[in-house]
Design brief:
Elements (H helix, E strand, L loop, with lengths): L8 H8 L6 H11 L7 E5 L8 H8 L7 E6 L2 H10 L4 E3 L21 H19 L3 E4 L9 H11 L1 H9 L5 H4 L1
Parallel strand pairs: 1-2, 1-4, 2-3
Length: 180
């Protein structure tokens, strides 16, 4: 798992250029994204351990999203519901289900106890990341701690550098002897 925190910057962006998903993870991502048509705007809102003023953020961009397909990626089911309700003239959609975490981020949630649940949660976060990266643009808000979520920064980087995302998925399909 790649971790890009708010201070990750160019070092993490350089590193990701040399990584690729394992074949099973790449396949899960490709299967989840198979039915997503190109041409959408993506929104990422982190609202568990980091808090955001997501209501004001959505209200400030709602008019710009009228008539557009909008991918919603968040770690909070209340945020997802609010966004869907706040964009009645848009076409909101999502690619993964939100795992109950008791308001905690995935990496510290006591609600995710089995290895299968941890794996599914990690893959879902990578599916969301890939879907954010394939969007026409990624919109996100800062958090109340005065920074931007590292996940949002990574999603924005992938959206602006689609070749990096394509490489993450491409290399996983190559036979092992070609990777050496």
């Amino acid at each position: 798992m790649l971790h890009d925190q708010s201070s990750g910057g160019s070092a993490s962006q350089s590193l990701i250029r040399d990584l690729w998903f394992s074949p099973s993870v790449a396949e899960a991502i490709q299967n989840a994204m198979r039915d997503i048509k190109p041409g959408y705007v993506a929104i990422h809102i982190r609202h568990t351990d980091y808090q955001t003023d997501y209501r004001a953020f959505i209200e400030s961009i709602a008019n710009d999203l009228i008539g557009k397909r909008v991918l919603i990626c968040t770690d909070n089911p209340e945020v997802r519901s609010f966004v869907v309700e706040s964009l009645p003239q848009s076409e909101p959609f999502f690619v993964t289900e939100i795992v109950e975490t008791g308001g905690k981020p995935l990496h510290v949630s006591r609600y995710i106890t089995s290895d299968d649940d941890r794996r599914r949660s990690a893959i879902n976060s990578l599916i969301d990341l890939a879907a954010l990266g394939m969007a026409d643009s990624v919109l996100y808000t800062g958090v109340t701690r005065g920074c931007v979520s590292g996940y949002s920064r990574l999603a924005s980087f992938l959206c602006k550098n689609k070749d990096v995302l394509e490489n993450l998925l491409h290399y996983a399909r190559m036979p092992a002897d070609e990777l050496e």
